[in-house]
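Protein modeling request. Please complete all fields; requests missing the sequence field cannot be processed.
Requester role: graduate student
Desired output: 3D structure, token encoding
Chains: 1
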Amino acid sequence: MNILSEVLKQDVFPALGCTEPIATAYAASVAGQKLDGKICEVHISVDPGVYKNGFAVTIPNTGNQRGNLIAGVLGALIKRPELKMEIMSCVTKDILEQARKLITAHKADISCDRSKKQLYIDVCLRTETGSARAVIEGSHTNLVRLVCNGKEFLTPNDAHYRSSSDEFRTTLKNTSVSDLVDMAEHIERQDCKYIKRGIDMNLRVAEGGRLLHKVSYYISELIEKKQRENDLFSSCEVVTSSAADARMGGLNLPVMSSGGSGNQGIVAILVPYLVGTHYNVEEGLIIRSIALSHLMNSYIKCFTGDLSPLCGCAIAAGVGASVAIVYQRAGKNMSKLTLAVNNLVSDLGGMLCDGAKEGCALKVASSTNSAIRSAHMALNDHGITQIEGFVGRTAEDTIYNLSQIGSIGMSRANDTMLEIMIEKSADLTDSGKSTNVNVDGPHDHNKTDASAN
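Delivered output (453 residues):
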């Protein structure tokens, strides 16, 4: 198995909009394609991580509509699952109006299933003549169940929809950081082209974000007013936060993701690219460094999970970017690469993830700054070592310790953030802005899919 190629296939893909609500739309579209006639009911159940990540993010082409519910209903109406994470490109005024009517008529709802501990999306649709159900689990496009009018369309050996994510993640998790460097150094030609495509895609998004008066605008304003130096740190922060502004603001441009996240793709790709071009690093070496950045991002998430209470832009993509910068200048120097991991984790290891939203551009800017600073320190053989805090003797030890903090030490953090979001949803409902959210537990599918179980 070529792990790098699998990472690029499974975790690095174009996404139009935040990946969690778009995955919800994809699942709904898979179910919708199986049905004839007008869809009259949409019922969605998601795990707490998907619920949190899709809570406040703007969905492209919806006139600033937010959240998993509108995305899921649109996906059910679009019925184009072959578009996968770019399905929002097919939103029309007519489809958007149909979706709004279903939601305002309380014919569509979303529930948060707190029993689910990994990425989970379960969509049930009903027409006047039939019903269909699609379930995604583990990763954003990993369809594990598809039922229409009582007939199962997937078997355990069916590879039409299912991905090999479990197999490659198991292998990746048992790999060392040293091995990841070797994989990046032996990148195949088609994978180089794919990485270059991601650079171009994310630079285009960053350019689009410059039109918005959001985080990147105010960083630029500080530079223009000479209240901040116009240096490598600032210029990189402007570009990456601009891309995040565009993505979180629902701009109609796809982002190349990393680790299944668009914002992580912005950090993992653009930071090594911008730093490399600043120092006139040869293009092939920049490409290999970004390959390493993707590998590190996915490797870390094998330990922390896809939807950790910790910010993936920091503790996964930020680490990947910092390691990539060190690799550009020092090659496979494991001492320096380890210091880069330790430095960034020591700096941003406690940054919370409270879901995708416009404020993520601030975290992207912080991750950009820390990645460059951590790499600079490491290149000069200075950094945090095992005698301090929870940092380990090796990069692998540090990543494992961080995962323990996220999964055990912060086990209540996600629940606490979720409770706050639930209260917000209740406030919106009380004010007449119904969100049609059920947060008590798994959705009862008997009503819409009685023959499917």
